[in-house]
Task: inverse folding
């Protein structure tokens, strides 16, 4: 008998539970929440799920071979550490931890115990991101010029993290995966507009070691919901509009070519525009969360190598941490050097 | 007999000429361009227009009471100075000058001569900007939370200015006018992606004395043309999509309200969302350039006070200058203090 | 103890079941389906639901005071008749029956037994239709000019009804309700494009006694999903785009005014266009099906008068029947006269 | 010296004049209009154009080798006949004539004189229609299922023709050209909504000899401007949205496939949906009117065969005439048999 326990039955936990149940990789799915009402609700909806009010009891059950942590960010570290200490594989919601030190400790602990540690970067499993990675890998995109991403809407205000920690982990993990990119320099500009004390409108600028830059605009205070990412390469430019019901990804055969006008004077160049067809590729439609939970089970059982293991989660946390430092220092840049954050 | 002379018959000059002719405020409209082909072309299209190959000859014509300068930015100062020296009223294309020192000198010269000095911030005369200003003035918007503006497309690369100097003067003049806002702190993030040597993808962040901030995204390297500005207030949020053929402005009765949950503990607040109707006001449809040229003639004749006089042009140039300093200093902030630019 | 039994657990039945359960107007909700797999599936999802494989057994249960019929159209009549015969209130999916004779018989039977007979015209309970009716009732729309509705997508092909019977009942019931309109003359144009034997692309034209006409375009063979209705009045024009995630309804203050140019010659008229603001009213967001099921319970208990009683369902069926006659007669018109269908 | 004379300087004539001037195929371009103000206006705008107030004088000028007629429809026949009688090639605005008899007479006259007679079906020269024809010709579309076209907006009301005669000639000529299609059976449904006496909202149904049908919706009373055509084939489905600034044409690899489930029973079929990529082909961007006027000059000089000669114009007029008969006969169908219109 193999089982998985989901800790936290608030907003996201029930989605994990449903997908673990439907995926069938585990014989039993357990739910754990201190809030009796929430626990009761999910157990009534899915009668096969067994509920625990106490984490210790869940972890004491030998049938639980893995846990998934869907609680507020500040509690991730302690829960994950307890799970690993009891020999459980661990899946953590994004962002992985409250700081990189915690993430590093979890990674070391999982490694020493030979356990799987994975972060739920769900978007990596969408058809859109898979297709973007495919286009990059094939060379079709050409060298990347820049990335511009907008992820804004009205609400949901968080209590324990600002809007950068809340929304940009999606974009950071997507770019890291789709372009195999590694952050080098971070700047953050943020505003506390609504008077609630948290930065609620923000711009996160990231320069990557691979030679391009990205700007991530995140907001809890936008009149309309926008989920739009541009990945501009020299050969192709991709626009991903996740608010479209279908046809979310457009690939533009558009760009700029520089012609040197004089052999002697290299500054004499002429810009020429290229405008070709647009293609709207069909995207794989399986629900991303279903694929993520299946991938986690496979990784725990040695059948797959994680695409969003602890190290990837740590990479994201480092950028978030750098953003907080930058915000405190008047948007000064923060470099990531050998894993350390260095204000520049 | 009253006349106006337009210097520069390249991309924008012919538009000025056409509108001065159609407006009828001047008895004669003159065109001036060193390039014989361009001059010939506009004179053939509008036979009533008389052409000059030489600026000196144009300025020597006593019928010319005003000139409009639509040449590359680096030539604005010398031409405007020559015009003012000869007693002509002067209209300059945006951006006004290459640096604030030049702009200041022109303002002083015009003042000393009692001449009109105006900058062609055409967008101030659109129905959309007029309506935005009206909504702000009426108090309907409430205190401004933030501004987010995107002005991007593929091309047109400029030779003498970067993408911030090329595109953001529109947005800077719009915000200054619609919200009576004064820039305080500037940061710029820019990339030279296409290898042409100029910053071609950029983000300009401006904090205003009035307590809100704006982010202006400008790019010559976007696969799609976007002209979209969000002005978010606590009572209303405006979205202006200038790519819409009609119904460009949407006013959302949307926002956030904070409810204090405890009299003792002010940190216990609850965020509540408000979602009401959306309205799409009818916009005044007269061509903006027609209104701007008429306004210029009125101002020259003392019938109106300019909404985009030299001081307004200088305000924009100062922000652009600050952006260049910020770009050179790794995006460090630059403050505007009593008209001086101070890196912070 | 009061109970409701839903017959048919295929595509739509589970939605009814979920809403009856969540609404709480009935102490017990029963499901009935010959297909053991489907029955099992819904009972597992909602453990409080008790399943019946046999309709007779369901009807024999005295706790069942009402039934909802969500089976193929050809079976509606027999099931509803059996239910009424056993003294149950009856809710039927649209279209109510296979022909008007069956609908008339059910109406008479329900009346003689003092039972409620209602048709599930779900769209009447959406915020969009409620708002449209409100605009019409207030006089804001002015006299109606015409209605144009498009309801098309790729699939779902039905086996027992053509695309007119499948899709236009929505539009027919909406117009009847929002404008208190009564069909007078019907024409149908239809094509069997995909070779499956059924009319799969169709246009249904309806003239109403109230002086305006409507065209309903229905298709199973459209590359894109379109749900768009225009209700054009002399004072306002409404566009309802149900594919929009938010802001589905737009009310245009647009129209035409005729000015008589000569007192003697009434033919000398000049058309003037009026273009004013557009408003996007906030719509009531409660799920329509929840409201419909609550309304049904209220009607059964005498607390409300049905807005989609049997007579309304019959009105729709008559138009559908007329469309079939028209299709067979080369799109000749069919009049509805005192409830009879008369080819003209 | 070769010249072309454009008769009618109202709405469309100036566009023809500009394009004849810019195209350079004629040494001289003449304008002719009884209205002195309109004539004066175009001659001032383009000083090289010589104006005639009188058609006879224009036709008497031996330099005029061709005329273009851009006057109200009822005057087309007499003007074209006079031109042909004087030995001029003739280009006529759509619709070609007020009835098919007139069109037939002009065709015969042109043939007997060896002169070119062409109708200005401008849309045939757009990149979108060229690409549609290419997709059809290549076999990529597969057999056509159906066509659905919407061409509606608020205004411009015409005085001498109804909305079908005004707007559908575009669609009729496009389908005839892009699909090499020949109309067989016509039905029209029309309403006079605004009380101006003319049919202002209409639906024109056309069955083609080639086995598919089309519906053309035309309206002068729509709150929004829509220009949208669907050409659905068994292999591909094309959506042409002419209101899009760019990316007007989308080609969907979408459709339906029927699988026979039983060798014995041919009625046992299963519908399967195919959903593949979407492509947005780059369209040739040269102005259509420029290409049309050049094509006309080439045809007059025997360098090209007209794609919209008199016979094509006649085909369109026959459908329009049939629509008027259908409207008068309660939307009864009208067949085109060997060029004759036969109510069925």
Result:
């Amino acid at each position: 008998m193999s089982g998985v326990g989901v800790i936290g039955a608030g907003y996201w936990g029930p989605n994990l539970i449903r997908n673990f149940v439907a995926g069938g990789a585990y014989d039993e799915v357990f739910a754990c929440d201190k809030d009796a009402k929430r626990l009761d609700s999910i157990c009534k909806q899915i009668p096969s799920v067994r509920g625990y009010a106490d984490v210790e009891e869940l972890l004491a059950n030998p049938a639980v071979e893995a846990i998934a942590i869907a609680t507020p960010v500040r509690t991730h570290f302690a829960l994950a550490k307890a799970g690993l200490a009891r020999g459980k594989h661990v899946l953590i919601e994004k962002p992985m931890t409250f700081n990189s030190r915690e993430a590093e400790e979890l990674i070391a602990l999982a490694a020493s115990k030979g356990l799987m540690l994975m972060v739920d970067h769900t978007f990596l499993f969408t058809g859109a991101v898979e297709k973007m990675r495919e286009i990059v890998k094939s060379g079709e995109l050409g060298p990347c010029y820049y990335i511009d991403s907008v992820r804004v809407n009205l609400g949901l205000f968080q209590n324990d993290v600002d809007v950068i920690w809340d929304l940009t982990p999606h974009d950071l993990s997507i770019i890291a995966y789709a372009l195999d990119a590694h952050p080098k320099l971070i700047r953050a500009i943020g505003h506390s507009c609504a008077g609630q004390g948290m930065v609620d409108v923000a711009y996160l600028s990231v320069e990557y070691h691979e030679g391009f830059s990205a700007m991530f605009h995140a907001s809890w205070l936008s009149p309309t919901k926008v989920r739009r990412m541009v990945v501009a390469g020299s050969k192709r430019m991709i626009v991903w509009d996740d608010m479209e019901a279908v046809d979310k990804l457009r690939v533009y055969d558009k760009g700029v070519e520089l012609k040197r006008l004089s052999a002697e004077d290299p500054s004499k160049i002429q810009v020429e525009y290229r405008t070709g067809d647009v293609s709207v590729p069909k995207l794989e439609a399986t629900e991303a969360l279903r694929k993520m939970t299946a991938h986690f089970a496979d990784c725990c059982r040695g059948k797959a190598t994680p695409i969003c293991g602890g190290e990837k989660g740590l990479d994201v946390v480092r950028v978030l941490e750098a953003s907080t430092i930058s915000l405190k220092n008047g948007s000064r840049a923060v470099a990531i050097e050998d894993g350390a954050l260095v204000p520049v």
User: Anything to note?
Assistant: The radius of gyration of chain C is 22 Å. Residues 146 and 273 of chain C are 17 Å apart (CA to CA). Chain C has two domains: 3-122+288-305, 124-285+318-343.
